[in-house]
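1st attempt posting a full record on here, be nice pls
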Amino acid sequence: MWRSLTFRHLAALGVAAVAIEAALSAATPNRRSRDRVIAHIAPALLPPLAHLLALIIGVALIVLVPRLWRGTSTAVPLAIAGLVALAVLNIVKGLDWDEALLDLSFAGLLAAGRRAFPLGCRNRPRLAVVGAALAAWALTYCALLVDPLTSDRGHTLKHALHTSLAHARLDRAWPVIIEALIASAVAISLVAIRSLLQPIAAANSHTDEQFRAAREIVASHGEDSLSPFILRPDKAFHFAAGGVLAYRVVGEIAVVSGDPVAPPGVEARVLKSFVQFAHRRGWRIVVWGASDRRVEMYRTLGLHALRAGEEAFVQPATFTLQGRRVRKLRQSVHRLGRRGWHITAVGGGELDPELLTEIAAVETRWRSQRRRILGFAMGMGPFLPAPRDEDLFVLARAPEGDLRAVMVFAGHCGKLSLESMRRVGDTPNGLNEAMICHALALAREHQVPEVSLNYAGLGHLFREEEARGRTSRQLARALFGLLGWRFQMARLVRFDNKFQPEWRGRFLIYESLAGLPHAVIRVLQVEGYLPQRTAPRLPVLRRPRSAALPQTDVAA
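the predicted structure (as tokens):
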């Protein structure tokens, strides 16, 4: 893969150099000795026309360079055709044999290495842009037809036209108008070529039928703690080999949400199928939140892995509020009880209409207080789009009885994964900790083997036991000093450590080192840390249909 990437980038840079040189050569006059030779073998209008066409093709090749750099396959034959035409024009306009030979060499190089350009595209320009280009060229053609009339006074109609133009002082400006029309037509044509090479737009959503199919796969094979979050409403699904993965396309990059969910042994087939699917549409891919169990699978497919953080999880069977190490948690639970706060837990199938209304009110109020909403790979949006029996809702009520906080745990294959925490109004310190402790106690009662708390981006750099040596610790602290104000990574790690969790790595999977910065930006956009051009709209909470987990009512 690295050889194809290197060839592609070198080829793009070479075409850029040739295109710039061709444009500069076309914009400068020929040598006088060559002009005299050309004058004897070619019509007088041919060399100037060749100069103009060479300039246009040079600019068109510059437009193609970004797509060659990315690896768009359709850009290759266009670039080859442009280079061949440029070679002919270089000979016609000034007998530039050396430039023509260089053009043909690059054309042959592109033809030989066309397999290094795997990405597809729309393969058809936008009709509105094509129509505008045709209109611009039509106006240019009409202007060129009118131009002889303005200089010919032999006939009355032509003389009247010329007189009118002269009176309006357009006779001197007419050549400038023609040049402006030609420039406009060329510019719009280049925009049309660019639209031809654009990737295919993604819907970034799924149908109800796809949702039901993906939900069945998650219910059967969603062992990973991020598996239930692929059902988020603003993700599209890709099905293959009995499995599914979820993704969202932002800026020509498909951000895959966690590992593929599939029967054991076929995860690689699902991912390989999606890579081919994405490349045909002109997308690069990045996998966000990949588990450490699948790193080798990604590498065998030619992808690269970068450890991007850690996920904290707790085994309820071993969790306890006894002992000095968890005294702060124990104090939080007791404090809330003394203040009259009441914590309950209810299964997703037990949400009655009245409770749904209360939860929706908390959600609406919570969102109204925030300018941006974070979460993608480990978040479901405005609560689960269709709560299932195995999902768990932890509710905290103030002494007055009104609902002040809601915590949602997504169920998957007998496990729980913390999805969202919502608090509104005045709430005491330690409320989130007490709600998690309540969920862990209920999980232990129902023999849930694992509860995932959250994913701490770059958390492995913050935890002192992972920062080996003084220098590593200082570099980690410097990085958190630069980024911590926005991402609150240290605060999240400290919160997780209160529950004495175990940690497992999460990875960013990317295609090439050159595309890594772009991939990181797209991940930050889908997670909500950076703005997107079009923010996704998420649906409101829908009422569930069945019940399973029993409701508990335990005072905090």
